[in-house]
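Z., the sequence and structure:
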Amino acid sequence: MKQDSTRNTAYTVDCEDYVHVVKFNPFDSGDACSLIAYGGDNYVVVGTCRFQEEDAEVEGMQYKTLRMFHHGIRVDAIAWSPETRLDALPPQIRFCTAASDKKLRLFTSDLQDKNEFKTFDGHSDYINDLVFAPKEGQEVASVSDDHTCRVWDLEGNEKAHFVLRSPGMSVCWHPEEAFKLMVAEKNGTIRFYDLITQQAILSLECEQTPLMSADWCLKNTLKIGAVAGSDWLIWDITCSSYPQDKRPVHLDRARLFRWSRVNENLFATTGYPGKTTSQLLVHHLGHPQPILTGTAAVGSGLTWHRTLPLCAVGGDHKIFFWVTEM
């Protein structure tokens, strides 16, 4: 494995719109292709991807748009539902968005005539992140600049409401910890809430601000990662409420942190869009330097493929894909 390889993107897809957010479906939809959704100023587009890394008959990558959903307003975040199935008859696509009007929108489509959406009202400021309950998909959790984390049913009724001490930046719901919610706040605190008692049960501290993004490792439930200031930070929750490891990465400020879905030591971070480019860094905990450095013109969003060490970032009418080693 090269210590520090600067790489151009492995693949790019041309998009209809400026891409503010991009999200691989983290759940198995029953199809060989991977679902991906991206959000722009007016639309959400859902498509499928297949890569040569998983299918020798594919040259490079195949991308196909399944449907474009009119959104009418800038998309700030997207979450996939585990109820999305491509192997059902008819198929079902279900996802939820957060938009710049402080509302959540739940979209359900059979990719034919049935295209429904419901609006969830309640947040009084920008929504920074949202996630579906990972097992049944019957609830959605969201965090906002209004200092709350809210849990909704699919009719848009508020089922739980946690008051935070600063803006909520990230919310995670782990498939192996279905009754706990991880909420990361801008003030550098990450808290775990018990959804049965609706009480905080554990907290972690960055000891630096602003915390912009945090993630719960899929492959190891004891590992939490975040970016705060210009550093990445990693916790082992059995050891301490303070980070086990941290390192400065982005010169200006770090923006997003995402664990790979295939390896508990692999993660990616992005910097703030600079005047011309954003930096993507892929890190491996066994290596002192990033194992991959990528740049994207004004990139935004960051997402890992469900089964490959491959991540994507959105940009100006494009999605950029990078492949790394395990």
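The chain has no helices and 29 strands. The longest strand covers residues 61-70.

Let me know what you think.
H.
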